[in-house]
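Friendly challenge for the regulars: who can give me the structure tokens for this chain first? No prize, just bragging rights.
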Amino acid sequence: MIKKDTPGYNLAVQENTVSEEPLDWCRSELNRLSMALKQVDPLKAEASHRAFFRIHTSGPTYVLMTSPPDLERNDAFMDIGRLFLTHNVPVPRVHASNMSEGWFLMEDLGTRHLEDTYGTADEDQALAAAIATLQDIQAINDPLIEPYTEDRMRMEVNIFREWFLDAYLGEKTDPRDFDAACQPLIDATQNQPQVCIHRDYHCRNLLFNDGHFGAVDFQDALCGPVLYDIASLLRDCYHKFPEERITHWLDMFVQAQPLLERYTRTEVQTLFDLTALQRQVKAIGIFARLKLRDDKPSHLDNIKPVMTRAHELSTHYPDLHLLTDLLSRTVARL
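First reply, four minutes later:
Bragging rights claimed.
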């Protein structure tokens, strides 16, 4: 019944399994839907404590998510999911849930991630759908979406200092020097309109199947920088687009977002790049933390390419000379 798998995102994982308890619950819920469970396929490992399994039935496929309630924001997953659906954001519908155990039987949005469309004939259509969906996300204005505060932004870049520089590389960095190097990135996130953002809008959390777009991993949505999600999409930690493609898609996004009309194209580019750098620096810290704290080496191979791209991008902005120097020294050690 349980198919073993080597997940593509985490080569250190040899197999994924699901225990009988959530499977029994899943069978019961499927019976309620007049479906019979036929096969279970583990899905790719991700950077959280959650696990996902594709459920094959006598009818449609579903996704079973196991999400430890003491470690994951399951209430937010349910609440924000409902909110997004009411605003036509294509996130998976939950057919059944066991909140005390952290088990969820969800709609299956498909097997093809945006990453799988890159370099194919579907790339343009997939990216256009991703940008169109951002318009729906950014139109949401609800008290459920909390502010992405400046203090939180600063805390996130400090994940890089604490977990990558200090813990992973063993390079003790003066917090004051690090804060000074990253302050322009923090300023950029604050000096732009604030809207609802998905907050993890990259090619492994977005799907495109038979012309249909979908988004997952949305439970950490906040009210934050208008350029945050488009920066996550176009300066993805898992894919490098040619600069001319980034310019093309960024222009499409800007033309559809009235909040950016008062900015010059150069101002938009600067805010976009510095917002992307904030996210890239944070991501490198998270990749190191996954290894050191959670014993998950799944993202270690992403550190060098992301660091290299962040360093190269920072060199285009003289005001980032402190950060450029720091990244230059770090790249040399990888």
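Residues 20-107 form a domain with the Phosphorylase Kinase; domain 1 fold (CATH 3.30.200.20). The first helix runs from residue 20 to 32. Your move, everyone else.
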